[in-house]
Design goal:
single chain, 378 residues, alpha+beta, Heat Shock Protein 90, 3 domains, two-stranded antiparallel sheet, 10 strands, 60% helix, 14% strand
């Protein structure tokens, strides 16, 4: 009877431990890592013990055989043969033990990394899934609010102060919509294998983006020029590529003073890539800020108001989308001298054609790569 309280306390401790192991992901991971390390150490000791046991057995057998051979043959080279055999056995067993330990370490290292990163991986995927769900839920009420506000603006008898307030509200709603679109892009990037790729003309992408941003560029009286080569096809996703160019041009427009200049160039680099460059004559970025420019929610100048900048997600999204397309992005800038952003993406894929003899041939028109360049203005 005296042991019942101790037994009850022990059962409660075991139950609490099991409950915590089941529901606390980080505690479970820590315990699994500790168990795995103990198992790894035990296995290494077992391998070493087996290796020494085999080596001892081989050495004993070799000595016995050498002694018996020496007694029977009465030769003078028996000791040299024994030493040579022992050296061979030592080297062979050392290589086998080293290989076994190396392989075991690699396997347990992989398992350890999987266990250690599991909470972070699960938390990140859950977070992105939650953000995506929330963003989808917000789109409908925001659309209704924007529509109602725009309908109210049609009233010609609306006072000027009220009109200005509603106009500002529509602009803020547009900014919120951009943030939601960026958040949804992050959610899509969790499963990049589901994004379809095809040949996309970057010239067409640039035209669509500039047409969409015409209101912004005209309101600020910006001069936008487009220079493109005849061949400007890349391998990618149309929606993602439009978002890349959209964010770059919008950033350039937001941070360029009125009557400034924005240049868009789309040219091949003659190494299998198309380079899309967006240059502006804006305020530029300091060297210190360039180191963090692709971090989510980072703003190069904290003193900037929301009216001139975005959410800080644009370039982070651009960076991830460029990586998804196996491309690269570079930024050159200095305060007061504008910014130049260059995105390099792989060229489009060329379809194979069959001739009458059922022989597959690839047809390439090299004039596309070396043809004259055209300039347009938007």
């Amino acid at each position: 009877m005296a042991n019942l309280p101790l037994l009850k306390q022990f059962v409660e401790s075991v139950t609490a431990f099991a409950r915590k192991y089941k529901h606390d992901l980080f505690f479970r991971t820590e315990l699994n890592v500790i168990v795995l390390q103990v198992l790894f150490t035990t296995l290494i000791l077992a391998l070493v013990a087996v290796g020494f046991s085999v080596l001892y057995k081989d050495v004993s057998t070799n000595l016995l055989v050498g002694i018996m051979t020496g007694i029977v043959a009465s030769g003078t080279t028996t000791s040299a043969v024994i030493v040579e055999n022992l050296e061979y056995l030592k080297d062979r067993n050392f290589v086998l033990i080293a290989a076994a330990i190396t392989l075991t370490t690699a396997i347990f290292g992989y398992l350890l990394a999987r266990l250690t990163l599991a909470p972070t991986r699960n938390a990140l995927e859950s977070q992105k899934l939650f953000i995506g769900n929330v963003a989808h839920e917000l789109r409908t009420p925001l659309s209704i609010i924007k529509t109602n506000t725009e309908v109210t603006l049609f009233d010609e008898t609306l006072p000027k102060d009220a009109r200005d307030t509603l106009t500002s509200t529509v602009e803020e709603l547009d900014r919120i919509s951009d943030i939601i679109n960026n958040l949804l892009s992050l959610n899509v990037l969790v499963r990049p294998e589901k994004i379809p790729f095809d040949n996309v003309d970057m010239g067409v992408v640039a035209d669509r983006v500039l047409a969409h941003l015409a209101g912004l560029t005209e309101r600020k009286k910006l001069t936008v020029t487009v220079e493109r080569s005849e061949y400007a096809t890349v391998w990618g996703n149309l929606t993602a590529l439009e978002q890349i160019v959209m964010n770059l041009v919008k950033n350039a427009a937001n941070y360029t003073q009125s009557e400034g200049v924005i240049k868009v160039r789309i040219t091949p680099d003659y190494r299998g890539h198309i380079v899309t460059t967006v240059e502006d004559s804006g305020i530029g970025i300091s060297e210190e800020d360039l180191l963090h420019i692709f971090e989510p929610f980072y703003r190069a100048d904290s003193s900037r108001t929301r009216g001139s900048g975005g959410s800080g997600l644009g370039l982070a999204i651009v960076s991830e989308l460029v990586k998804l397309h196996h491309g690269s992005i570079t930024i050159k800038s200095s305060p007061g001298h504008g910014t130049s952003v260059a995105v390099t993406l792989p060229c489009g894929r060329i379809e194979k054609e069959e001739d009458n003899d059922d022989l597959q041939q690839v047809s390439v028109d090299f004039s596309k790569y070396f043809g004259p360049q055209k300039q347009d203005k938007a």
